[in-house]
């Protein structure tokens, strides 16, 4: 499927610079078929991006984000033109604004988006509208609890690393509960323990307590945790955070 699309529509493949430059030819035309074509370009770019990322090959997302933002702006602009709500010569402005807004929201870098797009268009005439679009988009994204793409990719990579570190062999660690720990006076069931962690035993003074979900933790306890052998460092770090010492 990719090969024939790349052959007949080479502009929608690659990083995206060819697609951005080709939009000038589409926005000079009219008709609903242009709107549908631009929307299909956006959908294909998303599909190609998913396959490209899942392939594991080294690639960037910088220019593809700008290209997808440009297509959104062109699609919306041509929709407004066909509804006779906007003259066709203003569509290019929507392309510019959409690139800035899309980039600012996904990367979470509004100032970078404003400066980058201003440099690309080579004019300061769009500076104020670019700022408005970038910051309004960022505010809406925050209200919708959006996450920056680089942070999500980093978390995904870290999760993969943690999964790869699992050895499948059992190990034990002892975690002391100090005074001031946020775990004090909480029951076992109230605590979000690290993944693949089991509280095997609680040493309290001279007593050994076999815990259940209702067992409360007190200062001075020593928790005997059963963990995966390859997760020792990760569990130590998570337990330190869990006690509120970081």
Automatic annotation (TrEMBL):
<keyword id="KW-0407">Ion channel</keyword>
<keyword id="KW-0472">Membrane</keyword>
<protein>
    <submittedName>
        <fullName>TrkA C-terminal domain protein</fullName>
    </submittedName>
</protein>
<dbReference type="InterPro" id="IPR014743">
    <property type="entry name" value="Cl-channel_core"/>
</dbReference>
<keyword id="KW-0868">Chloride</keyword>
<dbReference type="InterPro" id="IPR001807">
    <property type="entry name" value="ClC"/>
</dbReference>
<feature type="transmembrane region" description="Helical">
    <location>
        <begin position="34"/>
        <end position="53"/>
    </location>
</feature>
<keyword id="KW-1133">Transmembrane helix</keyword>
<dbReference type="GO" id="GO:0005254">
    <property type="term" value="F:chloride channel activity"/>
</dbReference>
<feature type="transmembrane region" description="Helical">
    <location>
        <begin position="6"/>
        <end position="27"/>
    </location>
</feature>
<dbReference type="InterPro" id="IPR050368">
    <property type="entry name" value="ClC-type_chloride_channel"/>
</dbReference>
<dbReference type="InterPro" id="IPR006037">
    <property type="entry name" value="RCK_C"/>
</dbReference>
<keyword id="KW-0812">Transmembrane</keyword>
<feature type="transmembrane region" description="Helical">
    <location>
        <begin position="91"/>
        <end position="117"/>
    </location>
</feature>
<keyword id="KW-0813">Transport</keyword>
<dbReference type="GO" id="GO:0034707">
    <property type="term" value="C:chloride channel complex"/>
</dbReference>
<keyword id="KW-0406">Ion transport</keyword>
<feature type="transmembrane region" description="Helical">
    <location>
        <begin position="59"/>
        <end position="79"/>
    </location>
</feature>
<dbReference type="Pfam" id="PF00654">
    <property type="entry name" value="Voltage_CLC"/>
</dbReference>
<dbReference type="InterPro" id="IPR036721">
    <property type="entry name" value="RCK_C_sf"/>
</dbReference>
<dbReference type="Pfam" id="PF02080">
    <property type="entry name" value="TrkA_C"/>
</dbReference>
<feature type="transmembrane region" description="Helical">
    <location>
        <begin position="123"/>
        <end position="143"/>
    </location>
</feature>
<dbReference type="GO" id="GO:0008324">
    <property type="term" value="F:monoatomic cation transmembrane transporter activity"/>
</dbReference>
<keyword id="KW-0869">Chloride channel</keyword>
<dbReference type="GO" id="GO:0006813">
    <property type="term" value="P:potassium ion transport"/>
</dbReference>
<feature type="domain" description="RCK C-terminal">
    <location>
        <begin position="160"/>
        <end position="241"/>
    </location>
</feature>
């Amino acid at each position: 499927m990719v090969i024939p699309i790349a052959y007949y529509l080479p502009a929608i493949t690659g990083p995206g610079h060819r697609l951005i430059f080709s939009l000038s030819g589409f926005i000079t035309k009219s008709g609903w078929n242009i709107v549908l074509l631009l929307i299909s370009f956006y959908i294909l770019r998303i599909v190609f991006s998913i396959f490209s990322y899942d392939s594991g090959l080294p690639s960037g997302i910088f220019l593809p984000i700008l290209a997808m933002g440009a297509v959104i702006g062109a699609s919306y602009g041509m929709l407004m033109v066909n509804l006779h709500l906007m003259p066709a010569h203003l569509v290019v402005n929507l392309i510019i604004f959409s690139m800035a807004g899309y980039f600012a929201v996904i990367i979470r870098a509004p100032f970078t988006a404003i400066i980058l797009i201003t440099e690309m268009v080579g004019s300061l005439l769009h500076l104020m509208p670019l700022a408005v679009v970038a910051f309004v988009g960022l505010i809406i994204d925050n209200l919708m609890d959006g996450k920056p793409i680089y942070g999500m990719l980093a978390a995904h990579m870290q999760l993969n690393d943690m999964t790869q570190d699992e050895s499948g062999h059992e190990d034990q660690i002892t975690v002391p509960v100090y005074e001031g720990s946020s775990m004090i006076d909480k029951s076992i069931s109230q605590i979000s323990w690290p993944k693949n962690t089991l509280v095997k035993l609680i040493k309290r003074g001279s007593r050994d307590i076999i815990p259940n979900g209702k067992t409360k933790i007190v200062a001075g306890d020593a928790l005997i945790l059963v963990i995966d052998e390859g997760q020792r460092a990760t569990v130590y770090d998570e337990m330190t955070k869990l006690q509120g010492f970081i």
